[in-house]
TrEMBL record:
The entry's keywords: Magnesium, Metal-binding
Family: Belongs to the inositol monophosphatase superfamily.
Gene3D superfamilies associated with the record: 3.40.190.80, Fructose-1,6-Bisphosphatase, subunit A, domain 1
Membrane in keyword set: no
Signal peptide: none
Protein name: 3'(2'),5'-bisphosphate nucleotidase CysQ
Length: 259
C-alpha cells in the first residue's frame, strides 16, 4: 500500500491539475443550477473538476473507494481500506459570484481517519497540505494555530451558531464572529493562525472537512465533532456531528461553554 506521503503527492498533483479547469469557468458565466432537496447550487465547473479528479485519482489507486459531493453514492467505498474524500469545488456560491474564496478539498482516509490532505485555492495560489505524522504546510511553509482563549477570539462560523440556545446559561460567548465561504478554507485559516476557531453546531458533510481537519490537527489545533469526540470518516452517512476546530486552550473553553 502507498505511504501517506505518496498519497499526498498524488493529491497535490491532482489539485494542481484541477485548478486550471476550475479557473477556465470562473468569472465566465458557468452554467449553474440548484440540486434537489435544497442541497445548494452546482455548476458545470464542479462536474468537470469532479470528473477530472476521479479519473486521475482512481486511475492511480483503483482499489481506493470514492466519496465525492458531486458523484453518485457508491456503497462499495465502505468496504475499501482506503477512500478518497473529495469536494471538487468547496464554496460554489463564491465561485458563481466570481469571488476568490473557493477551494479544491482532497483527502485520503485509511479506515475512519484521514491520512493525507490538500486544500488548494487556485484563484489565490494557496495550497495547504498535511499527511499523517507529518507537518501542516502552506505553500511549503509550516503553519500553526493561535493560543488564545475565548474572550475576543475570532471565530469562523454562521450567525445561528452563536445564538444563546447553543451555550450554557443562555450566554453568547465573548467572541468575534466572522465568515468565509469555503468550509475547507475556514479550517485551514485556523490552522495557519489567521483566525482562532471554526465552529458548526450543525452536522457537516465529510467532504467539506476531511482535508481541512487533518491540516488543522497537524498544525497543532484540535479538530473534533461538536461534542469533543474524534471525527470519524468514510461513514455510512458521510456526515460528522458538528465541529470545533481551535487551538487546545480555546477548544477546551468552547466545548465547556456549549450545551
Amino acid at each position: 500500500m502507498p505511504a501517506p506521503e505518496e498519497d499526498l503527492a498524488l493529491l497535490v498533483r491532482a489539485a494542481e491539475a484541477a485548478g486550471p479547469i476550475a479557473l477556465s469557468f470562473w468569472r465566465a458565466a458557468p452554467k449553474a443550477w440548484d440540486k434537489p432537496d435544497d442541497a445548494g447550487p452546482v455548476t458545470e465547473a464542479d462536474l468537470a473538476v469532479n470528473d477530472a479528479l476521479q479519473r486521475m485519482l482512481t486511475g492511480a489507486r483503483p482499489d481506493y473507494g470514492w466519496l465525492s459531493e458531486e458523484s453518485e453514492a457508491d456503497a462499495s467505498r465502505l468496504d475499501a481500506r482506503h477512500c478518497f474524500i473529495i469536494d471538487p469545488i468547496d464554496g460554489t456560491r463564491a465561485f458563481i459570484a466570481g469571488q476568490q474564496g473557493f477551494a479544491h478539498s482532497l483527502a485520503v482516509a485509511e479506515g475512519d481517519r484521514i491520512t493525507a490532505a490538500v486544500v488548494h485555492l487556485p484563484a489565490m495560489e494557496l495550497t495547504f497540505t498535511a499527511f499523517a505524522d507529518g507537518p501542516a504546510l502552506l505553500n511549503g511553509r509550516p503553519i500553526r494555530p493561535t493560543e488564545c482563549g475565548m474572550t475576543g477570539a475570532r471565530v469562523l462560523t454562521y450567525k445561528s451558531a452563536v445564538e444563546p440556545e447553543h451555550w450554557k446559561n443562555g450566554r453568547t460567548p465573548p467572541i468575534r464572529r466572522e465568515f468565509r465561504p469555503s468550509l475547507a478554507w475556514r479550517l485551514c485559516l485556523v490552522a495557519e493562525g489567521r483566525f482562532d476557531a471554526a465552529l458548526s453546531v450543525r452536522s457537516v458533510w465529510e467532504w467539506d472537512i476531511a482535508a481541512g481537519s487533518l491540516i488543522a490537527q497537524r498544525a497543532g489545533a484540535l479538530a473534533t465533532d461538536r461534542h469533543g469526540q474524534p471525527m470519524r470518516f468514510n461513514s455510512p452517512r458521510a456526515m460528522v456531528d458538528g465541529m470545533i476546530v481551535a487551538g487546545p486552550r480555546l477548544h477546551g473553553e468552547m466545548r465547556a461553554g456549549m450545551v
